[in-house]
Amino acid sequence: MSLLQARDISVMFGGLHALNRVSFDVAPGEIVALIGPNGAGKTTMFNCLSGFQAIETGEIHFDGARLDRLAPHRVAALGIARTFQTSRVFKRMTVREHLLVGRHRHQRTGLLSALRRARWVAAEERDVEAYGLATLALFEDRLLPRVDDFAESLSYANRRRLEIARALVAEPKLLLLDEPTAGMNPHESAGIASLIRTIRDQGITVLLIEHDMKVVMGVSDRVVVLDHGEKIADGEPAALRTNERVIEAYLGRRQARA
Amino acid sequence: MTPLYAFVPSARNRRVWVPVLAGAAAVPLVVRSEYVLNVAVLAGIYIILASSLNVTNGYTGLFSFGHAAFYGIGAYTAALLATRLAAPFWLTFPAAGLAAAAVGSAIAVPTLRLRGIFLALVTIGFQEITFLVTMNWMSLTRGPLGIPRIPPPALPGISFRSNVAYYYLILVLDIAVLFALTRIMTSRIGRTLIAIREDELAAQSCAVPVFRYKVLAFGLATFFAGLAGAFFAHHARFVSADSFRLDETFVILTMLIVGGMGSLVGPVIGAVALVIIPEAFRFFAEYRGVVYGLILIGVILFRPHGIAGVPGIIQPRGAARAPAPPHKPEPALDVASTPESAR
Amino acid sequence: MLVPQLINGLTQGSLYALVAVGFVIIFGTLNLVTFAHGEVYMVAAFVGYFALAVYHLPWPLALLAGMVAGAVLGMATEKLAFRPMRSAGHMPPLLITIGLSVILKDLAVIVWGAENRAVPSIYQQTIQVAGVHVSVLQLVILALACALVGVLRLLLHRTRMGRAMRATAQDHEAAYAMGVNINRVFSVAFALASALGGAAGVLVGIYYNTVYATMGSTAGLKGFAACIFGGLTSIPGAILGGLIIGVVENLTVQFMASGYRDVVAFLVMVAVLIVRPQGLLGKTLRSI
After folding, report:
1. What is the pLDDT of residues B84-104, one digit of tens each?
2. Which chain B residues are closer than 8 Å to C267 by Cβ?
3. Residue B127 sits in which domain range?
4. What part of C 87-106 touches B (C-beta under 8 Å)?
């Protein structure tokens, strides 16, 4: 029984198909990579899955619920967390505060309870903070020593890690990672790959957009390939290397024929 | 040393704020002049106004230009209840806040979908409409004649004949409002509002119902503005729509920006500073507008975060961009790994 | 009775339109908003008043003087508020223009006093057009407004600077890359917009025979309302918006209490912003 089912997803941008009847599944516990040349529609697909993009045709089902008409915050409340292609951190908030906001859906404090500062409010804050700090352990010593620094003072790579940490503290069932290793050197990318495996081992299903083929081949159970808005392959990573359509998409038609 | 904008009064740092409070409480014992006390009372009112505007404009990043209208709605509500229904202060005060918040929430719903300059313009539109309706609805508000003979607050045993009583009353109200705001802004609510200001989309991806929180911020801000209006009505004992125009919103906004947005102490400092400066330099009184304008321009040009604001809410010139990734790799299959036949 | 009211409305509306077109030029080329535009209009109106009432100059010279004063003040605004804040987003310059408008208004009250100044009348005759009484002054104002917009159109479409302005409005960086002197374009845009606003100020003074220090605030805000109507980036939209507001205002005065006259513009603005923020003629919502 798949965790995520996307069926016949189409999105048009001014006459052009950004996505054209794309369908795929993600089973619980899988790590699936979504790859394709620039402009293939991968981030658009993420936006559809997370509620930021309306779809023209098709349906998305997640864990039994229908996703495609929900607002982004409702999608997130169902247990899908994501990172963004251009890292979207809260510049003037500390790392610690990111973790508190990330866990928003697990908190109950409202206006009146905040005013009264009821005993359970303080306890909730402590619990949320503890969970957040425990999550930072996944990132070795990169974020913990900077827990009270503003996000805008972090290095580029640490910002991307912070975004992943923020997504993780929501305790999602499905994690969407949009180019998590973009701009990282090979050593850092390997670290992210290892992190992804650890995340899966904790029971979280991962769907990632990636350009770094080492990472893709190294962590994915399955790879879905998009080109010009259409799905052209869906299978095991090893099978990709000999898939003509995939090679054609990346290297151009002439090359494949040669 | 915590920077000023990060200062949160708590039990731990009472060495800092208790003396300030004690000093404030001692003012009427030292100062005898009714006029000076009146200025102090005015500062107290603006502390509430600037702090409440801070909720939307500073913490949530929504640029609302309609604040004076809600101040006015609060003032008129209190005035009407007191003069027509002989309602006592302890009733008119919360009623004014609720009335302003009700109107604020009502207009928030259709307008908070707008951003930036469009939100600014629609709040200005609303501000002007409120002013014009108040000026013309003779049967309710007596139009340009205003509402006179508003009774002073009737609290047992206290005579509001002199400004001393008003001073202590506004001091107590200021403490209560600042206490409430501190609690709210340091809680999950405040955190969420700041996240919305920093990046709405990212906040949504954290399951934050952004729109609902924006309306909440607006309701909070307008509630406190209404409370300030009620106090104003019972202090000035006369209200007229002329006191609640766009100019007044600009005054409050200037106080907030000069004091600093997004922090708890910023609006307090800004309100006190900008009420005192025209008074301290009395010969500038005629030039109050010029002075405020120059101060506002000076702050924006040279220190956009004001005295105690969170740096970066109003971008300084040449705002730094986020560090770009070291390199953006061309997406391609690893050619070395493709089998011979494909090359 | 309707046609004269219509002419009243169109005349007043054409003056709103001139102010609104000024906003559109500034927003279109610089992607920024100025709150000081109303005060520029007011200063120009006073310059026109002095030219007519004190120096007894013929009205075309007074109009020209007002336009020049407006242009100078506008360019000064650009140098002070927008140039230093070029990369700072839209809020800092907006706030600086708020400061400027407050300063200008206060100075005007201090220097010129808060009372109305009487502007001498010109063209007090009325003539008969198709059986309807029309004031010559109204026809002159309508003609001038059309002429000014016509000249603007010529400048924008037939001159090199106009082309540079339109290119900059589309894409700052591309225009810069093609060798357009962005600084000069911005200055010219402000000068043009403020000259139009100044013309409106002088003409309003002549039309109503009065100028006063606080006349800028409402005019500026109504100018906003008018250009929102057509979307902040459409000149025909701004003109249409101004005319519609002028006409509806006059009808309101006819059929309702005159105090509510000003509400019309703001109701229109709020309604358009809520229902269709890109205006009735604008295209997509330009992000700001």
Report:
1. 998 888 999 999 999 999 999
2. 125, 129
3. 32-245
4. 87-92, 94-96, 98-103, 105-106
